[in-house]
Amino acid sequence: MEKIVCKLVRGNYRKIFAKIKGGKVVVYANTKTPRKEIDDFLQKKKKDIAKVVERQKQKVSKANELEKQGKAYLFGREVLLPQKHKDRLKNVRELCKEYQPNLRSILFEMANRSKLKCDELVFGNAKTLWGTCYHVGYRYDKIRLNERLIMLPRDLIEYVCMHELTHTVHHNHSKDFWNELCKHMPDALERRKKLRNEYGWVLEFYR
Ligand SMILES: [Zn+2]
């Protein structure tokens, strides 16, 4: 197996842990932790770290490949991006905007089905969040969906909508929240896993 190249950050950490982003590994350890302990930690976690690094590298190269070909995603399938503007970011945003009504109808379909209500729906383009639910005043719930959701397969769009709708009842991620969510969508946790493992990069490409 390949040797793991990583950056070591020392600080006031209680235990050794690693973070992996964009295929790069950073290991955090206390200023007093002996080097040997860190090496042992890395040795023990080697397989897991390598797996994550490989997965992330694949995502980055997938995103680069799509950008190079001028392609994007629409409902989980590759599409050629309309090349109306010179600025590729503008093209992506325009595509997303065009499909906002589709996202809107999916959200309200889920709302009808679950009898949970959304008083206002707005769209955003955050880098880290698929959706947010705000509680404005007394029983007024506003949901913000990331416009990039239209790139995901329909079952994942539904998951994000149902997740945010559930927040109109449970404001945090308590056990009650997950129970309520799974009541409306029994396979919610599988969809969540798929979203995290396979589509996280959709928020980051074309930026
Ligand atoms: Zn949430």
Which SSEs are present, and which pair or pack?
Blueprint: E1 6-11, E2 17-21, E3 24-30, H1 35-68, E4 71-74, E5 77-80, H2 88-98, H3 100-114, E6 120-124, E7 131-135, E8 141-146, H4 154-166, H5 175-184, H6 188-199
Helix pairs in contact: 3-4, 4-6
The chain binds zinc ion.
Q: List the ligand species.
A: zinc ion
Gyration radius from CA atoms, angstroms: 20 Å
What is the topology, as strand order, of the major beta sheet? 1-3-2
**SSE series:** EEEHEEHHEEEHHH
Tell me the name of the CATH homologous superfamily of the largest domain.
Metalloproteases ("zincins"), catalytic domain
Mean pLDDT: 92
Query: How many strand segments?
Result: 8
CATH topology of the largest domain: Zincin-like
The largest sheet is: 3 strands, mixed
Count of domain modules: 2
- Approximately what portion of the residues adopt beta-strand conformation? 15-25%
Q: Helix proportion of residues, in percent?
A: 40-55%
Distance between the termini: 33 Å
Low-confidence stretches at least 5 residues in length (pLDDT < 50)? Answer: none
CATH architecture of the largest domain: 2-Layer Sandwich
**What is the overall number of helices?**
6
Shape: globular
Sheet/helix structural class: alpha/beta
- CATH C-level label of the largest domain: Alpha Beta
